[in-house]
Design goal:
76 residues; mainly beta; globular; TPD1; signal
Length: 76
Amino acid sequence: EFTNTCMECLVCDVHVACGDFASNDVIDPAKFRRLGINDCLVNDGKSIEPSFPVSFQYGNSFPYPMTVASASCDCN
């Protein structure tokens, strides 16, 4: 789950360092998708409201460590 923790701003174009992410379960690509090695996009790059969570489930035999690599606050 990814949540916008900024209480007064939108964030968008959120990219996550996700290694060689893969899932045995289908994930809605509008919520989360791998663009390339170590680059995954959250919420189709669209704005995420303050405190709004974007969540999904994936199936694999081990967890993937993920960290936000980049995001934008210029979401107009």
